[in-house]
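W.,

You were right to be curious about this one. When I first looked at the sequence I had no strong expectations either way, so I just let the prediction run and decided to look at it fresh. Below is the sequence, 212 residues in total, followed by the output.
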Amino acid sequence: MDTVEETVEEKEVQMKTVLSVLVVSLLFCVTAECGELTGSATLKFNTGDAEFDVTLSNLNDQPSFNAKAFVGDMSLSFGTSKEKVEKLISETKMRPADVYIALNIAKMTEKPLEDVVKEYKTNRKKGWGVIARNLGIKPGSEEFHKLKSVGKNKLEKIKKAKKEKTKGKAKGKGKAKGKDKAKGKGKAKGRDEAGDEVQGKAKGKGRGKSKW
């Protein structure tokens, strides 16, 4: 009986995990579609800094192709559980860039993530400029510029990784095509050589018959 109960519990946990990933993936897809329809520049973060807003908009577009990888990256980078990251997206309805900046503010201010989430829920319409200020990061301060710089560096790393991945795929395709061509040439040569040998034998037989 204990074994059966444990098996049922394990299946329930697996189902919850699968459903959680599906919900996160769906929300990422919705975010991606909104970006395509309205343009990433129209996404409002209201940080009080135009350049930082553009960085967050671009950062928001990057992980939409792989929700699972994004959740894992945020969990590893900020030392928080994947479940917490997933809840920020599925329950708090945060966009990828919102998740990133929320985790950064919690880390920089050494405040519980729950405090940042509470402030976000209260002032999400006013934007991250107000949220950050209420949590102790004033616009134009050293902490604010650090937050801005961290976001920019993260965006560059993601773009670089995607570029290298694309190059790797292109090289792989090029090598595969090169091998196929080489095999084709080898077969053609083999046939030519086989053809010469057959012709040689035919000539030999012909000469033998004429002597008789």
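Here's what jumped out at me. The helical segments are 2-38, 50-61, 67-78, 82-90, 96-109, 113-123, 128-134, 142-211. And, maybe more interesting for your project: The chain has one domain: 2-169.

Coffee later to discuss?

I.
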